[in-house]
Known about the structure:
It is a single chain. By secondary structure, the protein is α+β, with helices and mostly antiparallel strands. It is about 40% helix and about 20% strand. The strands form two sheets. Strands 3-4-5 form a three-stranded antiparallel beta sheet, covered by helices on one side. The protein has a two-stranded antiparallel ribbon with strand order 1-2. The protein is elongated, with a radius of gyration of 21 Å. It starts with a helix and ends in a 9-residue tail after the last strand. The relative contact order is 0.15.
Amino acid sequence: MKTLLVITIAALILGLSLIVGSNVRNQVKRMNTLDTMGQILVALDKTMPTAYGREINAVEATRNMFPSILITNHEILDAWRRPIQISVKKIEQGFAISIVSSGPDGVFGTKDDIVRNEVILFKSKTDGNQ
């Protein structure tokens, strides 16, 4: 009877460890993905506001500033090694940027997606922060 109890407790501990470990790994990947999104925004912020009609390639701009970023098939990858969607829309005062990772489940449009929406304002040609 004691042996069965010990085996049951050990199995419960192992099961909980696996669940907790998976959650911790996903949180670390979530933080890494948010860091990647931040790098994309930094690269776009440095290149887009002074583009004045030139098309900007978000992947190349990010690769140039952050050479260690994960890229495959001309797409930036999240921490789960899945493509990140980058949407750039020109608005009156600059650009509306939307960056989306499909998150742990790998499916876009679900509650675990990681989303960053930002606006990058135009800088004047004489702005010293180019």
